[in-house]
Write a structure and sequence with these properties.
- By secondary structure, this protein is of the alpha/beta class.
- The protein has 12 helices and 19 strands.
- Helix 2 crosses helix 3, helix 2 crosses helix 8 and helix 3 runs antiparallel to helix 8.
- The protein starts with 20 loop residues before the first strand and ends with a strand.
Amino acid sequence: MGTKAAPTARPFSVTSEVGALRTVLLHRPGDELRRLTPRNNDQLLFDAIPWVERAQQEHDIFAGVLRGRGVEVLLLADVLTETIKASGAARIQGISGAVDARRLGHVLADELAAYLRGVPAEELAQILMSGMTFDELPFGPDATSLVRRMHHGHDFVIDPLPNLLFTRDSSFWIGPRVAITSLALPARARETSLTDLIYAFHPRFLGVRRAYESHTAPIEGGDVLLLSKGVVAVGVGERTTAAGAEALARSLFEDDLAHTVLVVPIAQTRATMHLDTVCTMVDVDAVVMYPAIQDELCAFTIRKEDGGGVNISGPDPFLRVAAEAMGIGKLRVVDTGLDGVTAEREQWDDGNNTLALAPGVVVAYERNENTNARLEDAGIEVLRIPGSELGSGRGGPRCLSCPLSRDEV
């Protein structure tokens, strides 16, 4: 009996929100969530202390649904470990991003960095993700570090990254290129140092070019929607700045990755932290949208001009200019609920934050019963997953996933 040949790795490219999903990057919840306490969960951007084991079960179901539809699922912890094993430079870069001499002092920072250079790759990957407390330092205290003597043992010498769960934000793909983002809030800033080294040093990503450099201005992947090939919407609100949106647009134009960027102002609140918390695509011509903003959502249109310049117009109604830029007559809209209270509840619980696996097929949290029913009434297939614990950091299936490869539509 012959052996089955391993499948050839698919080239990475994403040109839409709804093309058949082929490869995706997820992060299974881990010890970083066990660092959350009532004392630090607000600072670390969680609204509740998640039950980690249940969150892992829910995430396993999510990954299983994707695999059941033929999607290759890459897990960030595995990819990070493989990267560190493959590259000494990746190890050094990861340590450099995590060990901050300005906060720890040079004595402690140098000692910790020297120790981390020698730990096994899997252990280092876990430390980079879940952090380390002063009590967990692998060497005894001495009289030379004032920082160590003045900190409590449960304080973090390396901060945990509980929001790694939301792989959408720290990188996104547009065409064959990857954009490394700049995360706005301190609790998330170091996440991009991990995605940066993965894309730079992991064997599967060697030769991949960048679409946008994260040091330019704040932008997060949850604010970026690929409406159609060459048409990108960027939300500007709590996390992404106008400067970030403009810098992204100019970068995409220079690389011929887009011809139109729609910049969409959204409320600067926790409930609407990203554009994909109020609007995601569910088909080539359809979105699910929070009804309270449907009529008021507007966009500035940035277009690439011949000769390398740009033209900025607007603001104009988002749904109209989006359809025009996409070359379709009208965008179909599925709203989140029939009444205001239901719509607000389901928007908070990520009813608008769906992940398309193909045109007209989406993954959604099961708890948003009204939104899911309305999607099905509109002809959308809804694959329901539990999310009671996964959603405690305010993010749905789209937030939880970074598509690396989709078919063209």
